[in-house]
Design a protein that fits this description.
Length: about 230
């Protein structure tokens, strides 16, 4: 598809031009989209979680609990700091049981209507939320996640709707209670960024994980200071 213009050095495609374009129609029909997506997710999430299968059959012994050899105490401390920064109402939105169906109730398209919304958090709370992600990932991984969030704001500017597409249109969950031994985890979900992290002792599993971007190729000219 040929570009029809540019914005801050990014090529703008037909998908985002005009009130009848696919991208804009999806934005204006957000509530209906979520009803369909969450209805489908609810149906799937109600089925027992079986793990990895091959042609519908469970493959036993593929992944087992084992020592990961990593010190996960920093992740636990950051999660505790994040939870302590929240109000009672925000904690109620953020905290779920370790085996909650909300692990699977997310959509790539938008921030789902559950979890503690980063959009309404204070700067202190946002920094605390980012602290969990930073403690759990490599520097490159964290920069990639933050880059996706920042590019989401650029997309919102491009289409004229930063209310739905912004840097902080993401939600955070903490599943279970941060513990040195018992299973617990966290998740951030929103447009083009879903990271799920399960911690059991010093073993960390980060899946499912999805990172996307639109615009997809920032340059130093279009976004000065953006990680390359």
């Amino acid at each position: 598809m040929e570009p029809v213009g540019t914005y801050r050095g990014f090529e703008v495609r037909e998908r985002w031009r005009g009130s009848d374009s696919p991208g804009i129609k999806m934005l204006t029909d957000r509530d209906a989209f979520f009803r369909r997506a969450l209805d489908n997710a609810g149906e799937a999430a109600s089925r027992p979680f079986t793990g990895v299968t091959a042609e519908g059959w469970i493959e036993p012994g593929l992944f087992s609990l084992r020592s990961g050899g990593e010190d996960t105490s920093a992740i636990r401390v950051r999660a505790e700091e994040f939870l302590s920064s929240l109000t009672d109402a925000q904690r109620a939105e953020a905290i779920r049981e370790a085996d909650s169906e909300d692990w699977r109730r997310w959509s790539n398209a938008f921030e789902a209507p559950h979890g503690a919304s980063m959009k309404t958090m204070s700067d202190v709370q946002r920094r605390a939320a980012l602290g969990i992600i930073e403690a759990s990932m490599s520097r490159r991984g964290f920069d990639t996640a933050r880059g996706a969030m920042k590019l989401n704001e650029t997309l919102g500017e491009l289409v004229g709707n930063t209310d739905l597409l912004g840097e902080w249109n993401y939600a955070m969950h903490v599943f279970g209670s941060p513990s040195a031994g018992d299973p617990w985890g966290w998740q951030i979900h929103g447009h083009h960024l879903i990271v799920s992290c399960m911690v059991v002792g010093n073993q960390v599993v980060m899946t499912p994980c999805f990172v996307g971007a639109e615009p997809a190729t920032p340059t130093r000219e279009s976004m000065p200071g953006f990680p390359s």
